[in-house]
Inverse folding.
């Protein structure tokens, strides 16, 4: 196996929460500003912490915005969360092949675990690094380095898979290898500008990248 450890972002990489995130933002800004925002307004903030997004979009009401967003998001989480095609099967095969895996996300650890448990995926991950596990957040390398430490590996042994420039930058700064998923909602040009080592058109591409025999 080429990489002993595989780190994954969660939203937009393994789980499709686009509708959930967009609707959570839209609800929040209707409540506090009576203002409509579009998916295009929200997509550039994918991969950032919720606080960072709110500080940009509504700096005068950050705490209120976060509280309203989280309340709506949790209420509708399970109904509006799905796993991307191939995720369940590929994670199982990577686990069976002996890959150590971790989640590195900008959401809270509890919410991340809730999403993973919806599809019985939590059993595959040694570590789930959420926003509260780190002082600094992506694109800083701290979250990736924290996950690598939890796996007991070196950065050179690890591949980070994500859907935003922040994932790629964070992993590169940590010294890990990088892969960008093509099903991202983040503007593709911004991701390619960070020069990921690999591009995934499907989850199954990880078998080739990690040099694992594809199941028949």
């Amino acid at each position: 196996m080429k990489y002993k450890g595989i780190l994954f972002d969660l939203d937009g990489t393994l789980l499709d929460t686009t509708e959930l995130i967009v609707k959570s933002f839209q609800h929040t800004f209707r409540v506090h500003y009576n203002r409509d925002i579009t998916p295009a307004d929200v997509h550039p903030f994918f991969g950032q912490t919720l606080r960072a997004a709110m500080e940009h979009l509504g700096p005068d009401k950050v705490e209120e915005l976060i509280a309203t967003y989280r309340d709506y998001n949790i209420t509708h989480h399970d109904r509006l969360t799905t796993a991307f095609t191939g995720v369940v099967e590929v994670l199982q095969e990577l686990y069976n092949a002996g890959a150590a895996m971790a989640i590195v996300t900008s959401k809270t650890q509890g919410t991340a675990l809730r999403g993973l448990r919806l599809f019985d995926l939590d059993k595959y991950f040694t570590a789930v690094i959420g926003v509260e596990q780190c002082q600094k957040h992506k694109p800083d390398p701290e979250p990736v380095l924290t996950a690598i430490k939890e796996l007991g590996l070196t950065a050179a042994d690890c591949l980070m898979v994500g859907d935003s420039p922040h994932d790629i930058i964070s992993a590169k700064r940590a010294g890990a290898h990088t892969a960008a998923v093509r099903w991202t909602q983040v503007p593709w040009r911004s991701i390619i500008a960070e020069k990921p080592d690999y591009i995934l058109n499907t989850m199954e591409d990880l078998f080739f990248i990690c040099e694992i025999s594809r199941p028949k």
